[in-house]
């Protein structure tokens, strides 16, 4: 059987695909407009609270926040687009005409599922190239309370590391490995759990098994005096990866960056199960666009005149939303270590693929 035999005629396939894609992105546009407006109501006051911020900073926030909203609600829009398209085709008796022409339910759904696969590819590229960068920049901007936007988006910010009984806070880290450089360093020096002094330095570099900092000053808690130390050594035994890999945010990294970070963590002997689940989910998440037409297919079949079309639409929406609930639950279990990473990312997709096929086969095939 040729590939063309899996689809209706080219004209009908393009017609169905166009209906599906237009409704999907129209629904997405409406959701983005409403949700962005609601988000601005809660965040605009915090943005404008920083001296010098104005409308320009509001628009910068919008450009960083909209990609996140698109990433979150694109699967819901695909579900809605599939259900609205199939319900309209059913109501207009176009599904009946296709089936009377000898097409199976799978052939009727093929144009929508192929379009969903294309949307999934676009979604993965969009998430990988745009959303990850926007998320990384927005997270850094929030950490400085919407002060001037950090220029170097690859830096780590606000990292805490424990060294013996002391706590080391670093405001900014540039570079990786032994080439990592620390900026705005504060060391809270403690004895038997009690704070004895606070050491501050502007810059530090890795020196063998410790860190050499320049221009250090120490505040003695007991005497209340500040003394100039100059160049000194801190963080004996603290490895560079403890700073550079102290906080790996999978949402702020592309697929390749997250995979490289996981490899570095493995080499450093650090746990990576939760991050591996997020890595797999970067693939399974966008692929949900391929699954949504199958879950919404229940609204396509059955006589619209029977009065049960609305019930079928509700069932299709319920199946789609149950998938998202199961997906979030499995990912949470993966983050807790209760599920293996691969299972946490792919089990909901495979489960609901089988459920959709079972419903379709039982009712229509």
UniProtKB/TrEMBL annotation:
Q: Does the keyword Cell membrane apply?
A: yes
Its membrane topology is listed as:
Multi-pass membrane protein
Q: Where are the transmembrane segments?
A: 108-126, 309-326, 338-361
Keyword Cell membrane among record annotations: yes
Instruction: Say where the protein is mainly found.
Output: membrane
Subcellular location(s): the record lists: Cell membrane
A GO CC term attached to the entry:
ATP-binding cassette (ABC) transporter complex
One biological process term from GO is: transmembrane transport
Keywords assigned: Cell membrane, Membrane, Transmembrane, Transmembrane helix
Q: What is this protein called?
A: LPS export ABC transporter permease LptG
Q: Which organism is it from?
A: Sphingomonas pokkalii
Q: What is the lineage of its organism?
A: Bacteria, Pseudomonadati, Pseudomonadota, Alphaproteobacteria, Sphingomonadales
Identify the coding gene. Answer: lptG
